[in-house]
Amino acid sequence: MRIPVLLLGVAMLTLPGLAPAPVAAQSTNLDGRVNRLESEMRAVQRKVFPNGGGQLLQPEVVAPTRPVEAPGTPAAGALVDLTARVTALEEQIASLTGQAEQNGYQLRQLREQFEAYQRATDAKLTAMGPPPATTPATNAGGMGGGEPAPIAPAKSSGPPPKGAPEVSTAKAADPGRAARVAAVPRPKSADPAEDAYLYGYRLWEAKFYPEAQAQLKKTVNDYPKSKRASYAQNLLGRAYLDDGKPSLASIAFYENYKKMPDGDRAPDSLLYLGEALTRLDKPADACKVYDELSDVYAGKIAGMKADIAKGRAAAKCK
């Protein structure tokens, strides 16, 4: 009779050691899944938030507060809760990854459409030939002192001498225009880039649009690294837009966004680009531009929301 009792005692000593085995296996499996989730979450955050500076954002799935269990209590409840949390994290990562890929695809499509539009516009402009001369009769590039004397229109119908300034059709039709342009004061400071931009701004403000266009283009070409280059390129687009040339305006606005995306006037150029495309009867492209503006410059358009809403309404965006 002692043998069964002895066997029973051995069984009682052996069973407690076997019980934690499945729990340990589940814990090891969960550790691997959690480590993989952490790596994937960091990769997703680097893609969705490229300017996060390596800072890991707090997860939305937070562990609930649980009472402290006494040693020796079953761990099944904790493992079930941890498994549910890991499953929720996996679903969240899958959703974020899908959104990031979709946003990247839409941005690539928008850029490709812009480039195709630019190529088509350039081809049309090339086929139309060079536009009428718009260089002001005064020396728009001069940054020195006093006002230069107006240049009289050429009497000969032949080409002007080499190096001579071109005369716009507007000034040819209005002999007094040159004098009024010359009356626009030139800024005088120690910053030539600032003076060049301000002179172009004053010409635009006085509604001398061809002269303002020539001056602003010269400012961008002469001072491409200046802070005012973004201002001048944006104002060049506005000068074209106010002059009834939305096609040239759209090119100027897009060039400012493409070449100087971090410039102070890059968001403004996208806003006006949407208006130019609406005038060109391209409402679908205008809506994409407004979407691009809201996505790329979300933190810089607080003062533009009313104008964006107005532009979207004009383009009948969904």
Folded structure, characterized:
The longest helix is centred in the N-terminal third of the chain and has 53 residues, at 76-128. The protein contains twelve helices and no strands. With 318 residues, the protein is mainly α.
List the defining traits of the structure above:
65% helix, 12 helices, 318 residues, disordered N terminus
Overall average pLDDT: 76
Q: Compute the gyration radius: what is it?
A: 34 Å
The total of beta strands comes to 0
Amino- and carboxy-terminal Cα gap: 88 Å
| β-strand amount | under 5%
Report the major sheet.
none
- The helix/strand class is mainly alpha
Helical content class: 55-70%
**What pattern of helices and strands is seen along the backbone?**
HHHHHHHHHHHH
| Number of continuous helical runs | 12
Morphology = elongated
- Poorly predicted sequence stretches spanning 5 or more consecutive residues: 1-21, 131-169
Summarize the structure.
By secondary structure, the protein is mainly α. It has 12 helices and no strands.
List the SSEs and their pairings.
Layout lengths: L1 H17 L1 H29 L27 H53 L40 H5 L3 H6 L9 H14 L3 H14 L5 H15 L3 H14 L6 H14 L3 H14 L8 H11 L3
Helix pairs in contact: 2-3, 3-11, 6-7, 6-8, 7-8, 8-9, 8-10, 9-10, 10-11, 10-12, 11-12
